[in-house]
Structures are given as C-alpha cells and as structure tokens.
Write a structure and sequence with these properties.
Blueprint: H1 2-21, H2 23-32, E1 40-43, E2 48-51, H3 52-55, H4 72-75, E3 82-83, E4 86-87, E5 115-116, H5 123-137, H6 141-154, H7 157-181, H8 207-227, H9 229-234, H10 237-257, H11 263-280, H12 284-293, H13 297-310, H14 321-345, H15 363-398, H16 406-409, H17 412-441
Antiparallel strand pairs: 1-2, 1-5, 3-4
Length: 443
Amino acid sequence: MSNTKSVISTDTLCNCVNILRDPKLVRQFQIYFGVPKDCQYSDSDSHTNVLLSDLAEDNGNNDHCPGGASTEEIRNRSSKSTVNGSTSDGGNVADKGCDSSEGPANQGSEEQIPAVSTESWTLIAKLFYHLFKFGSALGDDVFYFVFFSIWSWHLDLIVIRKLGLVWGIVLYVGQFTKDLVRWPRPHSPPVVILERRFEKEFGMPSTHAMIGLAIPTCMVLLTNSRYEHFFSDVFPLWAQASLWIGWTSLVSLSRIYVGMHSVLDVLVGLCYAALLMMMIFPWVDVIDSMILENAVSPLVLLGVYYSSIYWYPSLETWSSTIGDTSATVSISSGIFISGWMNNYLGLLPDSVVDDYFFREFSLLGIGGQVLKYFVGLAIITPLFIVIKKMLKWSICSWYGCSITDKAAMKRREIEIPYIFFTFFVVSIIVSTVCPVIFQALNI
C-alpha cells in the first residue's frame, strides 16, 4: 500500500513539474499580455518578416515535450549542432526525449533566430512589452552599476555593503546550481524569444527571480534596521510592502514574458532565494564586523572569492555564465574591501546622508545629487576603459595571445582574471575613490 502511494505521489510530482516546465504555458502567458498568437520575426538581412508558424512547421511531435530537444533548423537551442535532424554525436534529436537537458539554449551554433518585430503590435501590447523589458533589466549588470553607485554615492555605505554580501552569495549559488542542473530554457517555438542575451545559458533556477526577491527584501530589512523608526515614519509599511511585492513580481514575471524561463524556473528561483536569505541574513552583521575589524580581511576575501570561481562547474561549450559570475563575486568582494579600507583609514563616514535627506526635497538638493552622479560617471567611465584595456593586454601578453583573438578571450584562464580584477578595481573606485573625491569637492 505504501509503495502504491509512493508511486502515485511521484507520478503526481512529475506531472506537476512537466506542467510547470511546459513551454506552452509560457506561450499562453505571452499571449495573455499581448504578444500576438502568430508573432512576426524580422529578418534583418532580407528586410522581410517571418511568421512564428513558419518556423514551427517542422516541429513535429516535439511540441508536446516540456524542456525537450528540437531541431536546429527550428530553434537552434540544443546543446549540440544538428544536421538534418541528427546531432553531432550521431544521435537523432527526436530520440533525446522529454528529459533532454544536455545543453543550454543555442549552444553549438552561431546562427540565431531573427529578432521579433513589434511594429504591428497593439498599443497595449507595446506598453506591456516595455514594462516587462524594464522589469527584466532590473536583473542586468547595467542596473547593478546604477543601483550600487547610487547607494554608495548618495545613500548609505553600510546598507549597500551588507546587501552586496547577500546579493553576491545568492547570485553565485544560483548560477552554480544552474550549471549543475543544466535544464534548458523553454522551446522556441512555441515560445517567442524576446530577449537574446542570456539565451545560451541554462534555465533552472531563474537567477533574475532570485535577485528580484533578494535585493528589495534586503533593501527594506537593512534600511529599517539601520534607521529604525525613522525610515518607517517616512516610508510607511504599505509603501515598503508595495515596493517589495511590485519589484519581485515585475522581475519574476518578466522572465516568463521574454521567454527566458518556464514557470517552474521562476518558482524554484524564488523559493531558493528565500531559503538562502533565511540562512545568510542572521549572520550578515557578524560577517560584516569580522571583515571590518580583521587586519588580514582583504587577503582572505580575495582568496575566498577568487577561489570560488575556480570551483565553478566547467561546461563543454562557452557561455557568458562564468563571466557574469566572476563579475558578481568581484563586485561583492570589492565593496567589502572598500568598507575595510574606509574603516581602517578613516576615509569616509558609514552614511553619506543624514536624517533630513528623506524628509526635505528641494530642486537645489535634487540638482546637486544629479550633478554628483554625473561627476561620478565622468570619473568612473574613463577609468573603467583604461583598467579594462590594461588588464586585457597584460593577461593576454602573459599567455602569448592577441587581445583581438575572440577564441582566446573565452579561455577560462584568461576570461576569469580579466573580468574579476576589472570589476574588482572598478567597485573599489565606486565605493571609495569617488566618495572621497565628492568629499573633497564638497558635493
């Protein structure tokens, strides 16, 4: 009897997983928010439009298979290149079955599905498109730069330092898990791909959803802890809850909308992030104090963070995951080492705002903050370019290759130190050098 119940529960769980992984569910979500049923792809070479139904003509029986493989001619999303329906290892794509998870999207081919044309979309559909694209951008590196620089230059160095710790751990563990599980992204077709950048990565769990939960949660909790009743008086609980729910929901749903994740990827990502934060958050203050007060913290941090990249899973083919993860851990370590420098050298106060910052807004004050931000950009932009070129040249010279060799730049021993130390130095400039300059200029 118990065996029968076990079999039934296992079957039920598998059915739920298959339903939540089904790309048709993602497509239904897209259609609900205005993505046309017969979406057009624009061909930039021939300046013509191709219907989604034309791309799906040869999809055959794979359409029912959640997370399964499909032919290269239709979607270019299998882990190995295909020729006339066969993989490079001699197997047939159709034989891979519903459990195929051998590679991330588009691995093994440089050919891409054409970009989606939104010219014929309705106004409401275009509004949803831009809304969800904005939500998706809240998990990208450009947003991280803007977010961390604003907190470092205009708000509070303690809050952003602790938030950077949680952000770095959650994103690293999420990416690590993604490249261990190796579940592919949703099929296209039937899914319409509205974002191309992360298409070659695996899908489970959604790290955008993880960060979409981690950042607003930490921001609200850490700021309330830091400013106690003052912050709650200025921003009431309903406003904080609205920010938290709105941010998390927008980022998470945007990943389904752009076709990068299944519903299961997003749900697992949210649960995974919540579990990680429950484990990390009670220790944030302890870790922060240990790092700031220990004389050898910079060396230990550099060793731990840099070693974590070399423990990262190796993939058979290149993807942007290792570079993105290197940038994440380097920024997190750079922020903490900046805090250590500020503490030991007494360079900066922990908070660059006072209690009146949230209470009194004026055009002059806002103008001053905008000016400060553009001064910061004027400092960091040329330094970033110079540091990037110097590190690239130095590392490539060490390994005897050219900086124009794209294949060499994807080698693990070159890509990791080049990206890691570029963003490590830049994060120190953002967290320490720029605020010191602002202090000297009295802005």
